[in-house]
Amino acid sequence: MRTGGAARPTTVVGCGPALVLVAGGACAGCGSPDSGSRATAARGVSATPSATTPEALCARVVTYWSRKVLDSHTYGDYQTMGLSNGQYDILRKVVDAARAAKKRQGAAAADELIVRQVRQGCRDWYRTGGPSNGPWQ
Asked: Which of 23, 83, 120, 133 could be bridged to 87 by S-S, CB 3.0 to 4.6 A?
């Protein structure tokens, strides 16, 4: 046990970008309060995360599962895939078209078709209300 004497001040050593962001741009012992935000801006990193639009998220997940299902010759359970009923409808239409394209034009053409049609299907689905369009949609 220590008695008498004053407490020693502590300093933060090795302050990295994560700590600078958590501390709101200021970090004791890491230079000027603004140096962290300048370094972050120089790297092109935003302090505010960008949100993924519902359409983009739909396209990402349906494209992923469409590619998986294309060669499996089965569709599987949409709930296991984490898809809504509407997303699953998009997947089934796209995979049917992609299977035909793959037979006629090859795998690259089928993949291009998947990307294009899923993007359009998700865009259309959200334009008309998306999952809030009714129960179990």
From this structure: 83
Residue 67 structure tokens: 């590619």
45 class by beta-carbon count within 10 Å (0-12 exposed, 13-18 middle, 19+ buried) = exposed
Q: Summarize pLDDT for 35-81 with one digit per residue, the tens.
A: 454 555 555 655 667 788 899 999 999 999 999 999 887 778 888 89
In 3-state terms, what secondary structure has residue 26?
coil
Single-letter residue type at 101 = A
Place of tokens 């369009």: 133
Q: What's the rounded Cα separation, in Å, for the pair 117 and 119?
A: 5
What is the signed CA dihedral for 37, 41, 45, 47, rounded to 10 degrees? 40
Tokens, residue 2: 């220590």
